[in-house]
């Protein structure tokens, strides 16, 4: 009787293990389904509108190196020093109307006089002369800057050529509007003031955008939808009618 009772208990334990194993597999499968759903929801949530179609962080957009750290105030001392130097330069040359060559000459005279007197005085007071470092401009940095400027200039020429060829009316109107704004800004302030304004914008707008990124992108998405809606109305009522009146082979006939 005892052996039969033990045999029945072992059978019941096996059945219980199978039931628990089935429940565990079903729970694990449900957990995997939940994980898939959550991952799909997270992928949907990650597809958030970013201003100007940006896919990289703001720091990467600025190159991700020391220039990005300066513009985004990662090093507050360096960023403040650069912005302060730009402000002092603008005050000297714009408000006080100081001449660049005059300033360069006065600063050079002062620096050379101080170093010369210091070096000469060390011979009489028996102290080590000041260490004047040798300054060399690395060739690699100059070549990188020149190469980057060449690529951007060529890209600009390509864009201007595409616009002038009449392929994209939307881009043409945007460029004309941008040039008109630039001419208005240029007529109200000189080149130095314009450079200073651009410098202040570079040191303020990116860091503020990085801080309030989600709010700005949300507002930008709504603004872009409204702009596209208004452009569609303009295209339907005005631009399409103007383009339809222009004969397609007019430019080819003139060439022939």
What descriptive keywords fit this protein?
membrane; disordered C terminus; mainly alpha; 256 residues; disordered N terminus
Question: What's the overall average pLDDT, rounded?
Answer: 76
Cα(first) to Cα(last) distance is: 113 Å
Low-confidence stretches: 1-7, 22-33, 35-46, 250-255
Major sheet size, sense and barrel closure? none
Q: Classify the helix fraction into a percent range.
A: over 70%
Gyration radius, in Å: 34 Å
Shape: elongated
* Helix/strand/pairing category: mainly alpha
Note the run of SSEs as H and E. HHHHHHHHHH
Strand content: under 5%
The DSSP helix count reads 10
Find the count of extended strands (DSSP E, 2+ residues).
Answer: 0
Keywords: Endoplasmic reticulum, Membrane, Transmembrane, Transmembrane helix
Transmembrane segments: 102-125, 191-209
Region (Disordered): 1-41
InterPro entries: Reticulon (IPR003388), Reticulon-like (IPR045064)
Description:
The radius of gyration is 34 Å and the shape is elongated. It has 256 residues and is mostly helical. The chain has ten helices and no strands. It has helices spanning 2-46, 58-61, 66-71, 76-95, 100-125, 139-164, 169-188, 191-211, 213-245, 250-255. Helix 4 (76-95) packs antiparallel against helix 8.
């Amino acid at each position: 009787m005892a052996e039969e009772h033990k045999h029945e208990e072992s059978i019941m334990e096996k059945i219980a293990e199978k039931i628990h194993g089935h429940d565990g597999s079903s729970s694990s499968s449900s957990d995997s389904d939940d994980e898939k759903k959550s991952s799909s929801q997270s992928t949907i949530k990650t597809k958030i509108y970013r201003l100007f179609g940006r896919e990289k962080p703001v720091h990467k957009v600025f190159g991700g190196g020391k220039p990005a750290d300066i513009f985004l105030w990662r090093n507050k001392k360096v960023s403040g020093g650069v912005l302060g130097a730009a402000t002092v330069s603008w005050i000297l040359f714009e408000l006080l109307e100081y001449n660049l060559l005059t300033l360069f000459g006065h600063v050079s005279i002062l620096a050379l006089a101080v170093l010369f007197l210091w070096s000469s005085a060390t011979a009489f007071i028996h102290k080590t002369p000041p260490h004047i470092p040798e300054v060399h401009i690395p060739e690699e940095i100059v070549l990188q800057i020149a190469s980057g400027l060449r690529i951007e200039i060529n890209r600009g020429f390509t864009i201007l050529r595409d616009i002038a060829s009449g392929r994209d009316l939307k881009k043409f109107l945007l460029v004309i509007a941008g040039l008109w704004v630039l001419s208005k800004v240029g007529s109200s302030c000189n080149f130095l003031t314009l450079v200073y304004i651009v410098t202040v914008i570079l040191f303020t707008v990116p860091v503020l955008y990085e801080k309030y990124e989600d709010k700005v992108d949300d507002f930008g998405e709504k603004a872009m939808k409204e702009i596209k809606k208004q452009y569609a109305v303009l295209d339907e009522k005005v631009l399409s009618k103007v383009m339809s009146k222009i004969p397609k082979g007019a430019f080819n006939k003139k060439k022939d």
